[in-house]
Specification:
This protein is α+β, with helices and mostly antiparallel strands. Helix content is 24%, strand content 42%. Strand 1 and strand 2 form a beta hairpin.
């Protein structure tokens, strides 16, 4: 168990999920995909919200500025599931949530601001 009391769960297709709720949703989405209601089902899709920030140094030999050191790592959001909705033909980004942390709420807002994507919370 982790700090949120989730139990890692492996589904019958051998895919391990971070929680029972996420595993159950995966099974539901696989059924919807087989029925043709959704397509292009993916899991654990990364969206960069703020790229990494670097210091630059001028390289005399190459006569240009080069990245020298990462001073801030990128900020990214990893969606539980991403798929195409068969009815609307829109991309759906889904997250199965038990507890909405402060970090998640900020990333949800950044997803809307940066990528114009509203996360569907299950």
């Amino acid at each position: 168990m982790n700090k949120y009391h989730n139990i890692k769960t492996t589904t019958s297709d051998g895919v391990t999920h971070d929680s029972i709720k996420e595993a159950n949703r995966w099974c539901e989405l696989k059924l919807l995909e087989r029925a043709g209601r959704i397509s292009d089902l993916q899991r654990q899709v990364k969206f960069v919200l703020i790229p990494a920030q670097y210091e630059y140094e001028y390289n005399d030999r190459k006569n240009k500025w080069l990245k020298s050191k990462c001073i801030e790592r990128e900020c990214s959001y990893i969606a539980d599931f991403v798929y195409q909705d068969g009815d609307t033909n829109e991309m759906v980004v889904e997250d199965t949530k038990g507890k909405k942390t402060k970090d998640y709420i900020i990333k949800r807002k950044l997803m809307l601001s940066v990528h114009k994507v509203k996360i569907k919370e299950i």
